[in-house]
Structure formats: structure tokens, C-alpha cells
Write a structure and sequence with these properties.
The protein is α/β, with parallel strands linked by helices. The protein has two domains: 232 residues, Phosphatidylinositol (PI) phosphodiesterase (TIM Barrel); 283 residues, 3-Layer(aba) Sandwich (Alkaline Phosphatase, subunit A). It is built from 17 helices and 24 strands. A ten-stranded mixed beta sheet has the order 15-16-14-13-17-11-18-23-12-24, sandwiched between helices. Strands 1, 2, 3, 4, 5, 6, 7, 8 and 9 form a nine-stranded mixed beta sheet that branches. Strands 10-21-20 form a three-stranded antiparallel beta sheet. Strand 4, helix 3 and strand 5 form a beta-alpha-beta unit. Helix 11 runs parallel beside helix 12, helix 14 packs parallel to helix 16 and helix 15 packs antiparallel against helix 16. It is elongated and about 95 Å long.
């Protein structure tokens, strides 16, 4: 027992209601900054990254208390006062540290506990103004870890001292009101190294330990756990209250963004039962539907697939290739050059629309096939003047030359356009909207009107400015637009070419928004389903599904097939040079297998058509 000189026993029988929120459990996992004193900036780095438990090792040598793990690492200036108590007081006085305190100081004793605790309390005496008490509930709490007194003696210590208990068998007999958390060695339950996943038996052992501590009403921490993202996620999922880490910045960045990166979807794409009887056959191609998921890389498609019950319509197809996306003047393409390659079969410089690398005009599928008697149309969730749709009708040096691009649209041979951005035809005062109608475009008021129209040229502006994301209400637009466009073009009684773009997958990649990526991929697949349904019922129809580039450098570290959830990691907010998939269905679809330049998509479409149609 402690001597009476250091006994605050009459003051100590604190109820659980006195404990501040950092002692609660069952909430979102918090961070324990392990060996915090080894950071370049002790305390402040941990505090800035929201660590709820900040650990400092202390060692008593010759009646002096040092911050160190062993005698060999002792420095005279490294004391708990200099590194922690003084900065905390100054932070509170200046307002740099907010009240109530959101952390406690975990003091890991590396020397004999009783004498070390006596010296610790002497060190704390000048700092009583910042320490916890029944009257000062927002004060600093010290949580004693490492070498500790006997559990039955926990109640003999001052109000500001709590304990990091390290056993499960006596939780029913110790003074729990003096226990801040229960800490256990991770390797007692698992030998997992933090890669892949724990084996089931070890996972259950960890879960049982967590459950037992929670049943006692206490939070739990493991020490010497793997310090990796996979480990942090596993401990988070299990419900570990304090995750032990030597990487306060990295773990804080990971945990605070996890809710935004670990997502499912509010929408579903129904999976068709396709008729593959006419897939791959060498028969006449009359209709081509080219579908472009802007920014839609393999990881994006995978994420949408897992969130959609582990299936998408595009991933049910048999013929898949990979397209290289580099532009003429850059390793990483933009949408203008990527779209031009798909639309014209020419490598282009970034930002150039419908021009080759020498800035010569090159004709797109729309122009070529219109001259061959095909009906032609384009759809986009982007502005109809956006880089990708513009490459099918415009010829400009820069994708941002919107005024000139609007003039290219009304002078084009298109029969149909559906997209956003009506204001682009008004804001330049170039009479572009009037010119659209003067050049034969009938502007429709709804998609139903588009579907039933017999006009030679029709357009539908879905909004004056941009369209919202799926999450903000655009559900079903692309699918319904695809159905309406097919109906309109089919009614013309001629072969047709239709380009369909979801431009919002790219948006999700640029802003690193996992939910946007997942839901926009599924939305795109709904439109893919509409195209595949038509092709399945009309065997002379070829459907090609691809992307202009990948956006975001997306990877999928983890997920849950059972819950339809995925975790997305982004390596950039820009495009990348990763190859993109090309899916094909219908006659001549087999020719789209393999690895090739993005310009080959145009060539393969034209090769299939020219076998049966002439200019």
C-alpha cells in the first residue's frame, strides 16, 4: 500500500459518469499514439491528428524521471514536464488546445512502479491547475501503463491518475472506475502480420477478448498489433476502441476518410439474360452503339460490380480487350485527345478536339457514317459541348473553345443529341441556339418526345447547366436517354451509330469520391443494359463499351461481397496512363479482344461496317 503522504483514497471512488468521452467505448475507433515521445514533434503531432491516447515512456534513474525506454537513451532535457506538461499547459492557456480535452496522457512506466509513481506525482504537483479532479472535470488525466501497482491499489492514487489494466481474468474484482482502458498483447490472440486477413480462429479469439472487455464497460487496446491499413481496418471492424499506431498522421487520414471511401450503392443495375446466339458471329453489322465511361478504369468497373451484387451487365460479356490511352503529346491523355482517338482513329494532342497531332481536321464516325446513310446520335451526362461528346462533331484546338464548339454542333451531320449545358448556346451571344433550330434541329421537351419523334434532327437539353450526380438525383437519366435515342434512330429505318457517355465517373475520380465512382459505374451499366437488350433482340447490332482513360489511380484494398461494399483508395486526383477495358457484344465482337491502341476501337468498328456497307 502507498504511504498516507500519497493517499487520496477518500476522494477517489469516482463513478463512471465522471469520465470524459475519451474513456467511452463502442464509438468510432480512436488512435493511441504509441511511443509518442519518439515523434519529431512529441505531443503536438499526435494532438493535431486527433490521437485520444498519447503515450510517453518514463524511467526513474537516481531519483530523476526521464522520458526514455531504457537508460541508454536518456537525455537530460527529455522530461515529462518539458515534452508534455508544459506544452499542454501553454496550449490550454493560448487556446491552441480545445476544452474539454479530447485526449489523455498514457504514462508507460519502465522502472519500478511505486517509486516511479511517487516521482511522477511530484513532477505533476506544479501542474495541478491543468489536472483532472472532481471539480475540474475537463482537466488532464494520466493513465498509468507498463509497470503498475497491484490492481487493488488503484484506488489509492490521486483523482487525475487512472490505469491501463492488462488482464482479463480479474475485471469483476478490480476498481473499474480507476481503469481508463484495458490493453492486451496482440500476439496472445493472433500471429497475423497485417497483410491479407486473420485466420478465422484467431479472429474469433480477438473478438472474444474485445467482447469481454466491453461487457465490463471498458474500452480496449492491443499493443504490438500490425501497424498497417489492413490491420487498422480489421481492428476498426472488430470494434477495438484504441488502435495502437506509430503513424498518427497516416492512421488519422485513413480512419477519418474511411466512411467516404468504404461505400456501397443506393442503386442497382438489373442483370440481363442475354442471347449470345449472335455474339461473335461474322454477320452484317447495321447498328453500332459505342458506350464510353469517362474515366472508367478496371478498378472502377470492379468496384461497381462488387457493389452491384458481384455482377454487371458489361462484365457478363465474353469478349474483352485492353486499350492503351496515351495521347500524341503526353503519356497521360485528357478526354479531348482520348475522345478524338475513339471518334476518329487518330492520336491527338491533349486539349485538341477532332484534330490530329498536326492540328488537321479529322472526320469522326458521326460524319463518316452520316455520309453512308446512317442515322447518328450522341448522348452525355456532361455538357453536350464537353470534351468527349464534342470529339464526335467538332474541330477545335482547345476543348475550352465552347463558343466555337457550339457552332460546330449546329453545322454537324448529327441527327440526335441529348445532354446538359443549354446555357453554352446562350452565353456567348453567338445565336447558337437559334442557329441549331435554323439548321434543322427540333428541340424536344422530354425524352418521351425524343423517342416518338419523326423529325430529321432532334436535340434535348436535360439542363441549362450541368446535371447532378446520381447521389444528388440524376437516377435513370442515362438509361432512359439511351432507350429514347435507340427508339428515335430505329424509327428512321436506316442503320445507325449512337455514342453514349457517362461523364460523371470521371468526376468521381477527380474528386476522389468513392460513392460517386461506384454509383456512376452502376448507372452507366444500366445504360449498357439498355443497349445490350436492344442488341440481343436485333442481331445486326454491335455494342462496344470502353473508356477514354482512367481517373483517380483507383485501387480496391478491401470490401464485402455480402454487404455490397468496397473500399476505394485514390493515388491521384487526375487521369492516369493505365490501360482501360474494351467490352464487345454482337457480330464481329471477337475482334475487340487483345491489347491495342485506343485508335484501334475506331478501326475495328469501321472494319466491321465496311464489310457490308460502302461509302
Amino acid at each position: 500500500m502507498y504511504s498516507n503522504a500519497f493517499s487520496w483514497k477518500p476522494l477517489l471512488l469516482l463513478s463512471l459518469s465522471c469520465l470524459v468521452s475519451v474513456f467511452a467505448f463502442g464509438q468510432q475507433s480512436k488512435i493511441h499514439s504509441h511511443n509518442d515521445y519518439l515523434r519529431k514533434v512529441p505531443f503536438w503531432e499526435a494532438y493535431a491528428n486527433g490521437c485520444a491516447s498519447i503515450e510517453v515512456d518514463v524511467l526513474l534513474v537516481s531519483e530523476k524521471l526521464f522520458v526514455a525506454h531504457e537508460q541508454e537513451s536518456i537525455h537530460q532535457a527529455r522530461t515529462i514536464e518539458n515534452l508534455y506538461l508544459q506544452p499542454i499547459r501553454q496550449g490550454l492557456q493560448t487556446g491552441l488546445i480545445a476544452k474539454p480535452l479530447s485526449f489523455f496522457l498514457t504514462v508507460d512506466i519502465k522502472s519500478e512502479p511505486y517509486e516511479t509513481l511517487k516521482q511522477l506525482m511530484k513532477s505533476v504537483m506544479p501542474y495541478q491547475d491543468i489536472m483532472y479532479s472532481a471539480q475540474h472535470e475537463n482537466g488532464l488525466k494520466l493513465v498509468v501503463s507498463g509497470n503498475r501497482p497491484l490492481p487493488q491499489e488503484y484506488g489509492d492514487f490521486p483523482e487525475y491518475i487512472f490505469f491501463d489494466h492488462q488482464e482479463l481474468t480479474d475485471l469483476e474484482t478490480i476498481p473499474l472506475d480507476k481503469v481508463a482502458m484495458v490493453s492486451l498483447p496482440f500476439d496472445r490472440y493472433s500471429q497475423w502480420g497485417g497483410k491479407g486477413r486473420m485466420v478465422e480462429e484467431e479472429l474469433n479469439a480477438v473478438k472474444q477478448a474485445v467482447e469481454k472487455v466491453h461487457q465490463a464497460g471498458k474500452p480496449i487496446r492491443f499493443w504490438a498489433n500490425p501497424d498497417s491499413k489492413s490491420s487498422w481496418k480489421a481492428l476498426y471492424d472488430i470494434g477495438v476502441d484504441f488502435i495502437n499506431s506509430d503513424k498518427p498522421f497516416e492512421i488519422n487520414s485513413y480512419l477519418t476518410s474511411l466512411d467516404q471511401r468504404y461505400v456501397g450503392s443506393s442503386i442497382r443495375s438489373e442483370i440481363l439474360e442475354l442471347n449470345f446466339e449472335n455474339d461473335e458471329v461474322l454477320r452484317q453489322v447495321d447498328n453500332v452503339i459505342l458506350m464510353i465511361g469517362d474515366g472508367n478504369g478496371l478498378a472502377h468497373i470492379s468496384a461497381g460490380m462488387y457493389a452491384n451484387g458481384n455482377a454487371l451487365n458489361m462484365t457478363s460479356l465474353k469478349n474483352v480487350g485492353l486499350a492503351k490511352t496515351q495521347s500524341a503529346d503526353d503519356f497521360t491523355t485528357d478526354s479531348a485527345a482520348g475522345g478524338t482517338a475513339l471518334a476518329t482513329g487518330n492520336k491527338a494532342n491533349n486539349r485538341g478536339v477532332g484534330l490530329d497531332s498536326l492540328e488537321n481536321k479529322v472526320e469522326s464516325l458521326v460524319h463518316i457514317l452520316s455520309e453512308m446513310g446512317f442515322g447518328t446520335g450522341i448522348i452525355s451526362t456532361d455538357h453536350i459541348t464537353g470534351a468527349t461528346p464534342a470529339t464526335f462533331y467538332a474541330h477545335q484546338k482547345d476543348r475550352d473553345m465552347i463558343g466555337q464548339i457550339t457552332q460546330d454542333l449546329y453545322g454537324s451531320s448529327l441527327n440526335l443529341f441529348i445532354g446538359a449545358g443549354k446555357n453554352d448556346f446562350l452565353r456567348y451571344q453567338n445565336h447558337a441556339l437559334d442557329s441549331l433550330m435554323a439548321n434543322g434541329f427540333s428541340l424536344m421537351g422530354s425524352l418521351d418526345q425524343v423517342a416518338g419523334s419523326t423529325e430529321g434532327k432532334v436535340g434535348y437539353f436535360a439542363s441549362n447547366h450541368g446535371l447532378p450526380s446520381i447521389e444528388k438525383g440524376r437516377t435513370g437519366f442515362l438509361k432512359h436517354s439511351t432507350e429514347a435515342a435507340i427508339s428515335y434512330l430505329e424509327n428512321k429505318g436506316t442503320p445507325f451509330f449512337l455514342m453514349v457517355e457517362n461523364g460523371h465517373i470521371d468526376v468521381g475520380g477527380h474528386i476522389n469520391d468513392a460513392r460517386t465512382v461506384v454509383e456512376e459505374v452502376i448507372d452507366f451499366d444500366q445504360a449498357v443494359a439498355a443497349a445490350l437488350k436492344f442488341a440481343s433482340e436485333n442481331p445486326n447490332t454491335l455494342v462496344v463499351i470502353t473508356a477514354d482513360h482512367e481517373t483517380g489511380g483507383v485501387t480496391i484494398p478491401q470490401g464485402s461481397l455480402a454487404n455490397g461494399e468496397v473500399e476505394l483508395e485514390f493515388s491521384t486526383e487526375d487521369h492516369t496512363g493505365i490501360m482501360v477495358p474494351v467490352f464487345a457484344f454482337g457480330p464481329h465482337s471477337k475482334s475487340f479482344s487483345g491489347v491495342y491502341e485506343n485508335t484501334e476501337v475506331f478501326e475495328k468498328i469501321m472494319t466491321a461496317l465496311m464489310m457490308y456497307h460502302s461509302k
